[in-house]
Prior knowledge:
Radius of gyration: 20 Å
Order of helices and strands: EHEEHEEHEEEHEEHEEEHEHHEEEEEE
Number of helices: 8
CATH topology of the domain at 2-49 and 135-226: Gyrase A, domain 2
Strand order of the largest sheet: 11-12-13-10-4-14
Number of strands: 20
CATH class of the domain at 2-49 and 135-226: Alpha Beta
Amino acid sequence: MRQTPLYDEHVSLGGKVVDFHGWALPVQFSGIVQEHLHTRTKAALFDCSHMGEFRIHGKDAVRAYARLVCSDPEGLPLGRGRYGAVLNENGGIIDDIITIRLAEDEWFVVTNAGPLEKVSQMFCGAHTGIEDVSDATAKIDIQGPSARDVLVREIPEAAGLKYFNARPARWKNVDLVLSRTGYTGELGFELFVPEAAAVDLWRALLSHDGVIPAGLGARDTLRTELGYLLSGQDFDESRTPLEAKMDSFIAWDTEFTGKEALLEQRSQGGYAVIAAIKTGDRRAPRHEFDVKQESAVVGRVTSGTFGPSVGHGVGLAYVTQELATPGRALTAGPKDLPIVTTSLPFYTAGTCRK
């Protein structure tokens, strides 16, 4: 397994390390539920250095990049981030991405670990002005209602940063990218730093009162309570943005790979869509459970877990559009666990926009 620059830190803190897309990452430290609830009430640190990062230099390079993504990066205002996706010719989702405009002629892109090699070949093969900086970049997320109060003591520029905005910043003479984004539903920041500075920054942030390390387990329960999708699990190249309900992130007035296929699918209709599902107790739907209406299989669960902040099972599943409407009673799994479709998010008290 590949190791992030923070691997030794995780081991010294007692982190339980697992294989995640070929990376040795901690699934938990003190415990998934404890780390989950701490993130909801205080602040936690997550090592996300396995993810991919790209820098785009110049208008010609971003035009080439724009043809590969469905989110109109050319029209992105300075200092803003935008969610989107990389598609294949059939409209299938290769990966979801965030594009940030750092300067008039510079963009910064964040991708996932699973499809990184394929995405890198696509991006870097499109133009010489697109640079894969993943191996040189560490990513540390600080998430939780007190994240801003902690971070401004180290990086004062964090004080006025608004939701889904980003900017270059400095910490102890180290240049970094600071974004007001995250995967937890709480107020938080993602810091993209040179690998050599990762350990020092991690230790500095962890030294503040009320900050604990958190692992992949809590990251998964936190994101599921918000209904955030996981690349490679809630979607892959067999699913389109229409099926994954990413419609609002598609820039239909631009040209991009897979657009014709999406237009045809939208016109024909009848495709399955992802839906939020919940249980009435602590039991949870699980990944790849069949979803049934009476005895007929009508869909499949992609994500499912117990939601510590809501007190019941939560999940996501692909079902027909008719069954995706809130309030439909269904069952999931071999023991016919009762579930009901509902609206997102499951957890409504998140602080991410505050």
